[in-house]
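Archive transcription. Copying these from loose printouts into the bound notebook so they stop getting lost. Printout 1 of 2:
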Amino acid sequence: MVWCQEQVMKNYKIKAAGLFVTICLLFTELFPSAVRADITDRNGSYNGQGKVVSSRTLEKKVSAGPKKEVYEDFDTKVVGTDGKRYEKVEYLSAGAVSRLNEQLRQTYYDACDEIADDIKNGIDEDAVIAISEDGKLIVSVNIDMKEVFSEDIAAQLMDQSPQEDNEAQRVCASAEAEGSVYPDIVSENTELLENNGISEDTAIEIPAKSFDLIPSDKNYFRKQLDSTSKEVYDAVVSSAADGSNKTSVSGNISSQTACSAVSAAMNTYIGAFEWSSGSGTLNRSFVTDFFGDTTTTITISSSDYYNSSLEESAQAKVSQLTSAAKSYARQNYPNDIPYGVIRYINDWICENNYYEQRGTSSNDHSTELYFNCHSSYGVLLKGYGVCESYAKTFSRVLDEAGIRSLYVIGSAGGGGHAWNYVYLNDSWYLLDSTWNDGGDYSNDKYFLAGASKNSSRYADGTHYANSMDFTFPAIAAEDYTENSEPVPVPTTAPTATPTPVPTVIPTVTPTAVPTAIPTVTPTVTPVVTPTVTPVPTYIPDPSGLTEDSFEFELSGMAMNVGEKAYAKINAYDDRVSSYEMIWESDNTAVAKVNSRGRIKAVNYGEAEISVTIDGITKSLDIYVCRSTLKFENGRSKLREIYWKDDHGKFGEDDRFEIPIYIKTSKDMLDAEELVQAGRVPEISCSNSYADAEITEIADDRLILTISPEAAGIATKIVVRFNGGKAVYIVTSRYSD
């Protein structure tokens, strides 16, 4: 959330609005043998003071062997490697940490160090680390969103809500007799964790048109992300399109990656993320299962005041304003239609809205007024807002009108702010309708302004404190000058004269020649009123593309029923992204595609997806199918024992191969063709006693090569391929 610095007061503080990060490792699945069934509760409290021990020191004590003095020490708190305890972090006790498995202890140490690094880097964090009663290690971190408010208001809030010391609650199990190798796991800090609250999955209704209003620079922010962040970005946008504020992706996604991807999506699809306006909370959690598979879930909190009817009303208002702006531009600025549209919208915002001071107070997060102030709904429908509402409204109308623009957030004059950059005649210009608002008119101070009025601003595009900073285009050196003077629209027909001279042209004297007169001569040359010309295209089309300008990344794509994926395009010409893309499916009963190129597999069969860009059409074959994986015995599960003749080390001679046969629905594709269509076999091993890899893919089979590493424990090897699964369980043993 960002709002205008000048509209409030000059002294500001940063206050948490919250990026909520939760790291949840499923300890009971990872280390079932380390969790006792006889966990009991032991109540205790911690007053925020006391002894600390660094992670390095504790690990040395634990490595030396189990000692009662260590795993029953619930007063000493375990901190990171720097040995420092940070004020807003609730740590676990030495007793709780020492009872964890070695891998979980290391996870705890890493979490402490990450939190410490963030705090040292100026990110204000509140953190609670806990162990739940069922053995989960949970790290919950609130990362502040950039937010500003008045010093006086801050003092009032502090007077009303005096700060009290947090009291940590702990329940734990009594340790068994001294010398026990596996003392009971304890539950600690769980009440603090529950008080923090975790964002829940919320169904949101977003009208489809919210995603059709794509700016010409729709890939501007996405292109700045790394490959992992792009995958998260696509998944977040896809989830929002499906009406969910929760997104799940494979792998352990860092908080910076999550924050950057969500920030990029919010900067691009203004109308599609209005439901998150003013909430400021992003929840990140990841869970690792027994096989080492990790899934990260990202949840963006939604406002209780959002509903689809509100968004539909906003869209109707955007369409109405766009139509009125075009009519005004044609009538008043026929030689510079984009300028006329921008002029109309800027004036309408300033004349029909006021800056709502109450929208800047952090004490008002829960109100409908606060939500309106930070979404476009305030300016579009209510007549008030803060800078976010001003800038979002401008961005949405320009998107509808087809004029290139960017929604910008950052800082200006020392405080958080939002504004727009607009592209006209091959240059970018600053447009700040908030600071143009003179009460009931526009003062035009920041209307299509050049670089000199942009020098005190820093644009970063970050909605969350842990996000990457985005780059923005350079601003033109000078303010924008429209292509022609406005043509006044008289209420009555003007009186004809032999040599009519518009009143906007200053009187010419021998020593001063008006700039509007093209030829400077001692005599006055009559100025003719410009002839109204047809409405030009809002964005000048670049030179046309060719067949070699772009192509699909794959020649065909395999999908399972219900799966959703984007058709990836390789663009060899930077101009490709500036054109409208028209997507079609020749068989919607099998596969559908939306206006953004997202494909949904509906039923088994084949379909052809096509995209047309600047009159050039390319096609992609879609195969909706599912594969079954079976061993030679005709089953999908096989259990075997590998016998080793001697007690020597396992090596290359112990490797052996197992064929897995592939059959695809309707026999559409064989194994090799599935790989060419984007499917890749995935393998997971339950432990390190055996390793496995696919060493050959030929026709209708995969060759699974097993490498025994040690004897004694069974290894569960899972192979997944195009929706099918095969499980091979191998136990290595010595024959004598």
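Printout 2 of 2:
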Amino acid sequence: MSSLSTLLLLRFPLAALSSSLPSCTQDPPPFSPRVRTFGNKYKSPRCPAVPKRHTQEFREVFQNGLPVIKWHEIVDDELEGDDAIKAHRKETISNEIKEHVDSIRVMLGSMEDGETSISAYDTAWVSLVEDVHGSGTPQFPSSLQWIANHQLPDGSWGFSKIFSAHDRIINTLACVVALKSWNIHPRKCERGMSFIKENLCKLGDESIEHMPIGFEVAFPSLLEIARSIDIEFPDDSHVLQDIYAKRNLKLTRIPKDIMHTVPTTLLHSLEGMSGLNWEKLLRLQFSDGSFLFSPSSTAFAFMQTKDENCLSYLTKIVERFNGGVPTAYPLDMFEHMWVVDRLQRLGIARYFHTEIKECVHYIHRYWIEEGICWARNSRVQDIDDTAMGFRLLRLHGHEVSPDVFEHFEKDGEFVCFRGQSSQAVTGMYNLYRASQLAFPGERILEDAKNFSFNFLREKQANNELVDKWIITKDLPGEVGYALDVPWNASLPRLEARFYIEQYGGADDVWIGKTLYRMPYVNNDIYLELAKLDYNKCQTQHQLEWNTIQEWYTKFSLGDLGITRNALLLSYFVAATNIFEPERSKERLAWAKTAILMEVVTSYFDKEGTSKEMKIAFLHEFKNNINTRDYVFNKIGRSDPNNIECGELLLGALFGALNDLSFDALLVNCRDIRHHLYYVWETWLHITLHSIEGDKHHGEAALLVHTINLSVGRWLSDDILVTHPHYQRLFELVDSVCNQIAYLQKNKVYDSGIYDTIKNRVTTPLIELYMQELAQLVLKKPLDDIDANIKQTFLGVAKSFYYIANCNSKTINFHITKVLFERVN
């Protein structure tokens, strides 16, 4: 049995969906023969080419059961209705997709230093700067005006979309201090203080993880300024006492000798500290004049030093944002990286190849060996941005060393910032994602993967998947998917289907000193496009599912032992890898090839099929390669009661290969028939002479060849034989798929083979092969072969890995969700 087919049967219960498969209109088979094998007759009208699977392995599936899937209710209504209505609906969807694509392209084309929301807290600090010419007026009156114009109806300032007591109170107190300092808008000040006093008690009710960065230091400092200008504030609040205790503890931990000599994250929050040596700190100033890209920290530094570079930075951002300033700026690296990540995970990256390429080049331009942070030319690096940048650069073929992560590792632990000892969920999440793109010999990535995996699993087990940098729709879902479906098993449409539900769009909020939004990273247009595109692709997939069922009936594959469940899973694997509507030929070639391999290998392996019968089958195939009408000549004219099983199988095989050849000729104007028959003949010969433990040799290569040939992608015979990368790709994909199938079939769970911690069927050798395969596919040498051809190798290998590492219930769930549940 073929390796992919073996996995399909072993991991997928044959009866699980039999009563609930989507129906399709089918023509009756042209004949209903009594079949026999070469030289032997059977009384049964069904050919036992595929032996019945024992259901004991899936007893828990049948006991627990799956909900009865009402396919007619969830299959896309695009398949039903009047032709004119369907045509109008299709045109409307296409127009909506085009509008969204155009809007997003405008956004991506306008990216500069980062589009972000305004921080009332930072704006208040900037508004406190006095005129440098000594007039006693504000240096930035537009900042004061912004504050006056943006008080919320409840008297507070801050992020209006969601209520966070920490965010509202620190923003409000800063704005009240600013207005009071300049003796303007007393009524606004009164309303602001009323809000603070009424809501101060709510600080103790909120998650400490969602507390703005540095709140426990910045807020007490603001209180001292407020009291110095006669703003009354209660002293007996238990909440305040707790904040002061946290402030004192944190200040005792601040290594002031270090913060004055090397750049650290403390540069971002200077306004909350006293007793600073400004002569030393100015040596740590960034090239744009800021202190770690913080407007409030830089404003405070200017008040203390009158440094012209600080003033230049502040003037620039006040003009850029018309008075108000963000909590950090620039955010260019962060924006460029996270935009690409969102577009890819939502499954809509193919609309923006040029824009994504430009973003990745931008990231590469400012990448340094020590790592990166949210803005270019930073002297402080963080693991979150570094991991995201590393992952994107490696995925897009750029040379990038994993040694960058050594800067964030100490004594076996990985931290968010160098010299610190803390981790954040999203930082470890992105480290885990990056670590899975390891190439052979990259030990630091193995260490990073193990550490981040264990960290995230522990947080998951303790229900602590809450992050200090973002408030997002479904962070537990994102982390859960990454932990359960490793990159080697994550298929494109599967990831997109889940991420569309996890992505919060414009509702996702980031946490800095205050809450803020990144509209080019989180917006509803991405989400709407992703939903429209997904449903459009799904409609095409459902139509193809009907088509492949008609093919199944036409060639009597049921009589050859193939269940509709196996057919469905074969198509699911193909469609989840190659999902674009225009790539229908590749999907169908993949699915049909997998099924035909299953039939052939099952026929060869079944009891009663002698070596002579196998040889006869191979000779029959070779002798009829040039016979285009085998089905008509050999089967259509035969007595239906005496059709040989081998002849029926050959009829299905020739029919499928002729269809693939004809489709390729129509689409690509190239005749692939000779090449297609040659690769099949080669595989049949290998299968005929295979031995136990090596029965799946050549199957992945056949899949790759057939998929690429179906769309006219092939290389010259010289390159096929001599190109070292091409030959190695075949060796690797064949070894991976062969070993995975063998382990799965034989349930070999010895030490080092079955990973009980991660619950995955794998071996160190399989992991090494997958790493080398990824290296050959992702890297871009000068004498490289077509990237699409290389991606086919990786897609086939990942499909084997996926099936081996997901149990039957999970696969059933994925099939339903990906192919038949419409995205709302």
